[in-house]
Amino acid sequence: MKLLDYQKNPSAWTEKGYTLPRYNRDKAAAETQKNPSWIHFGAGNIFRAFPAALSQRLLNAGEYDRGIIVCESFDTEIIEKAYRPYQNLSLLVTLKADGSIDKEVIGSVTESYLAEGKDWAEIKSVFSSPTLQMASFTITEKGYSLRGASGGYIPDVQYDIDEPSAQPKSLMGKLAALLLHRYACGSLPIAMTSMDNCSHNGDKLKGAILEIAQKWQEKGHAPQAFLDYLNDSQKVSFPWSMIDKITPRPDEKVQEMLKSDGFEDADVIITQKKTYTAPFVNAEQAQYLVIEDHFPAGRPPLEKAGVLFADRETVDKVEKMKVCTCLNPLHTSLAVFGCLLGFETIYQEMSDSDLLAMVKRLGYIEGMPVVVDPGIIKPKDFIDEVVNIRLPNPFMPDTPQRIATDTSQKLPIRFGQTIQAYLKRSDLKLDDLKVIPLVFAGWCRYAMGIDDNGNAFAPSPDPLLDSVQQTLKGISLGSTVAAGETLKPILTNERIFGVDLYAVGMADKVEKLFQEMIEGAGAIRKVLHRTVQE
Fold first, then answer.
1. For residue 22, what are the β-bridge partners?
2. What pLDDT is attached to residue 148?
3. 372 Cβ partners below 8 Å, 6+ apart?
4. Calpha distance 292→134 (Å, rounded)
């Protein structure tokens, strides 16, 4: 069974539980080429598992007659090795919490381009089409960055700023050039739709493109009218969105299940840039995509595929619901204690009664009273799915070590905003929060790089790790030195916690919990168990 042969003997596929495209793929491809409406940048796993699958849902239902054109600018091997050899077909494997899987051949991607070389002319042609309605993006938050660690422009960005060329180097430079081309074709409207998992993603995209365009205007490489075009939301919009779907790298267990079916295209591809891809993509079943409904050229009827469209304020509320209460704080707490207690996967942690009690108390008891309710998604339903289906899913091999990366940058949003909301409410007491100070103390304990058995481990990368470890260097397991004064520079840091923990009256609790966690081996488990059972 090969992807390219799925039409030759469909029954051989369906008998083994594979869902096949129910539309004329050649006809859809021809219509897409003639009248393109949707182009996407970022050909990674999340694209194939989510936007491409949404497009197929519309095609299967007869609600739309065109597919998606995809472009890749960062890791072109993805196109060369995982797309083109299979005529842009892929296999979506949906991983269910009960251990079963769904398998669907996705054929909605009709063209795949490298955002460079000879393909550049094809992409420009798409951007000159009056039928193009949207360009979407899954390029990660780093993809919108113009500057490096030193604060100066990344060399490719500087090259693009100095003078527009026939072949821009940076993705943001390429997008600015494509929009300049679309402007020259008659100020054609378009929605530039970020689907990346970062807050106010549309603003990040707009800010990067505008900065380059502004430099061009100052240097005389683009007219003021081009800037006016970019700033006219009735011509070019940059909608906000909230996306939520976990798509881990191709999993060996899934690979073996496919091979046992006789599926021959299950080899994992590792590119030179260390991207893990394959002709198949595995993803969790749960998915959410909420987009600000601002499309000046119209859009595909994605609401019929399950996408929620709303105003900007509602999108922001959905983001806050997820990030501040219903998912991200639970993930972070599991990451910290998973590393300390020696767990290798998140789903294994959910079988631990203390950790399960911790995330339930954090979400349902401490977070829910101040959750931001967006109206279009019920917070209780969202968190129920997270706790009961998503986090315990044995097919999701996500690790606490990965999620613990950059924790110092996550704490102020994932926990600090809840603290601030409590402070504003006369009917709530900050002293009733037990898990949040436990997580803060646990993170300080984690930064020591010593697990609950007393063994050293390497904490995940974090921009503040060195300074925090320097502050904690005088503390060791079994130390009788009072930790309060040592912790003070950390606990007063509003950049870490979103508030000064001394100023709000939470520092004493964090200090006490930390002091108990350094008493010796097994102390973390003891403190965790006692706290979640209180």
1. none
2. 86
3. 317, 320, 321, 324, 325, 379
4. 13
Gap between the Cα atoms of 272 and 275, Å rounded: 7
- pLDDT tens profile 466-486: 999 999 988 989 877 777 788
**At CB < 8 A and 24+ separation, what contacts does 306-315 make?**
306/54, 306/57, 307/54, 308/376, 308/377, 310/374, 310/376, 312/239, 312/240, 314/290, 314/374, 314/375, 314/376, 315/239, 315/240, 315/241, 315/242, 315/290, 315/291
**Rounded Cα distance, 281 and 5, in Å:** 18
Instruction: Let me know how many helices (H) and strands (E) the chain has, helices first.
Output: 26, 15
Helix 435-447 to helix 328-341 angle (10° resolution) is 50
Q: What is the DSSP string of 213-241?
A: HHHHHHTTSS-HHHHHHHH-TTTEE---E
Mind listing the pLDDT tens digit for each residue in 10-64? 999 999 999 999 999 999 999 999 999 999 999 999 999 999 999 999 999 999 9
pLDDT of residue 299: 98
Partners of 136 in beta bridges: 40, 193
CA dist 474 and 490 (Å) reads 14
Widest CA span of the chain, in angstroms?
Answer: 75
Tell me how far apart the alpha carbons of residues 497 and 507 are, in angstroms, rounded to a whole number. 11
At a CB cut-off of 8 Å and minimum separation 6, what does 178 contact? 123, 124, 127, 135
- Please, what is the Cα angle at 275 between 271 and 276, to 5 degrees? 95
CA dist., res. 333 & res. 310, Å (int):
31
List the structure tokens of 400: 């606490």
Q: Look at residues 263, 243, 259 and name the one whose alpha carbon lies nearest to residue 306.
A: 243
238 token code pair:
């940059």
On the question of pLDDT at 371 being above 80, the answer is: yes
Question: What is the radius of gyration, based on Cα positions, of the chain?
Answer: 25
